[in-house]
Every structure is written in structure tokens, then in C-alpha cells.
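Q: C-alpha cells for this one, please.
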Amino acid sequence: MSSTSAKSIIYVNYSPYENSGKILDYLLDNFKNVCVFSIGFHSLVNKKNYNNLSIYKNGKLKKSYSLFQLPISSKFVFLLIPIRSVITFLEIIIYSIWLKTKFKRIDIYFTVNAFTAWIGRLLKAMGVIDKTIFWVWDYYPPIHENIFIMFMRLVYWQFDKTSSHSDIVAFVNRRLLDLRKDLGIYTKISQYPIVPIGTDKLPFPNFDTKNKNLTIGFIGVLKKSQGLELIFNNAAALKREFGDIKYEIVGSGPDEDYLKARAKKSKITANFYGYLEGDSFNEVLKNCAIGIATYTPEVSNVSQYGDPGKIKRYLSLGIPVITTNIVEISKEIEKSGAGVIIDYNSQKDLIAAIKKIKSKHSTYRKNAYKLSQKFYYKKIYPKMFSFVK
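A: Here is the predicted structure, written as C-alpha cells:
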């Protein structure tokens, strides 16, 4: 597609993932009219308006509407899912019909979530949109210590099975596709495109080698399952080995207060920046020696099926990654020399990984940056929209 495409697209995603992997930038470059439903889920510091409809024309924001939203409390976020889902359903349906009258034709409805993909299929049945695209980002194992959350995951899985038959379906990794084949949703010989989360093509950043203090970075939603408290768990040992450590944390989320409390009790200097708009996070992360993506090894952890945007951001900035073997991309990171895989519960592994990266930091940085180019978003996203003429 060219930047002069006259197509209109509705894009639905949850905050703060609207432009993960530069997907929104890609849509703005390749569609004339882009209508973005941004839906709040977790409370994010520095982000006041969670539910919005933004309308872009030729890459420029023309109008933004604040949609109704319930207050988001980390204590009740899952209990409120049914009510908030009904509100989301009604808002997307009503505003999509209005957008249809405004633009006369909506060519594509595009989303990454099973529930909102199901809404898209309803809109197609109603004649509001022409085609639906479901870019599968996740799978929620119907296993959890909380019975209510387990029930909600079972419900979500019903939407997932239905949405897996959207007009176009793409997966961020092969693990998600193979899972659906194993569960009988697709036949073993079914072919679907694998489209990972993309990376940006940034200039190879300079690194301040004069700074003797170790700086570790994290970006993402602040949840315990993301593994960022591993640094706090091992703070004393890390300080003994490496001296003063600075921990730069970009993002917000349900466990933010808990993690800030952990930081105060540790020997690590942690800076919490909250949610940062646009690409301003690059300024915070660019001088980090290492990026943390140490997902916790729990069977209920949804990260094991995803393609972490945080890792792609680290790689784009030439930041070596310390990760766990939970995510599929971890093996490629280690094989390419862009980072190190550790056992989440091994302090010895963590210290050894930091030493290994520090000993050949320049090489690890170059390897991380080189790996990022494989996933450049303008190169990999066209296959999802190749049917658009």
C-alpha cells in the first residue's frame, strides 16, 4: 500500500499499547482515515484520559472524543470487567455506526484483542465494515489461583475461539498458532501469517562509557508478573558486586505502589517515570546498559504466549536484554548475542548475566541493534494488509 491509500480503518486497542511496535504509525502512513478506539484497562500514572476515539486523516489528528469510562482501581479492575466490557461494546458499536455514516465506507476493522475482535465480526454482520483483521497478541491460560479471574479467562477464551475465524488472522509468534492447532480450532495444515511486534529503525545510539555506575532499564506495565522486582529481590548482592546501581523504570500499572514500596526498602536507586507519551521514553532508556524482561515462571503468566514490546524497544535502542525463557523470542536473543537468558529464581544467574554483558558490552549492544533490524515494522507489517488494494 502507498501513503495515498484512500481506505478507512477502525483500529481498537487497550492503553498504553496503541502504538506498540509502531503499529499506529504504520496505519497512519498507509490509510487515509484512521479511527482509533483507545480503551483503558489498568490505571496509568500521567495518563488521565483512558477511553478515547481519535480520528486521523492523512496522518494528522483531526478530532478526539473522550468516551465514558468508569474509575479504574487496581483493587477492583478484574471485578469490573463485565461492566466495563458492556460499556466498551456499546461505545464501539454506536461510534462505528456513526463513523460509517461519516466516511460512507469502513474498509477494515483491526484489533489485537479477542473480545474487541468479536465486536468487529458483529459489525461486519451488520454491514458496518467490510473486513476484519485479528492480530493475535496473547492467550490467557484458564488457570489462576483467583477463581473469578480463572472464570473470566474461560469466558475470554470463548471470544478468542470465535474471533480466530476473522477474515484475516495473524499471530505475533508461532506458539500462539500451534496452540490453536493443538486445541482443534485450526487443522494441523492450516497456514496463517506470523507477524511479530515490530521495531523502529533508530540511529545507533551513543553510550556514555564514562558512567561507571550500572544503569538498568525497564519499560512496560508495572505488574509483578513482568519480573521487574527481581532487581529489588537481589539488591544487596547486586550492590556488593557492582556498586551503586540506578534503575530507570518507565511505565505504570496495578502494582506500582507495591513496587515503589519495594524500591524504598532496597539498596537500589530507582526512578519511576510513570507513563510517558510518544517516544520520550527513548531519552530515559538510551543510557541504560541493560534492559530487564525477566518474566516470572508461572503457568498462569500470559507473557509466555506473547511477543513483548519492551524487548523490541530495548533492541531498537541497542540495549542488551536479560530475560527468562518464558517468552519465545528469548532463544533468538541469546543465539544472536543480544542478551542472556537466566533462571528467574537464581541470583547466581542474574549476577553472571550482568557480568557477561558488561565484559563485552559494545558487542552485545551491536548485536541487539542488529537483531532489531530483522523486525523493522515497515518491513513486516505489510503482510497483514496485503489484501487491501
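A few notes: The mean pLDDT is 89. The chain is about 35% helix and 20% strand.
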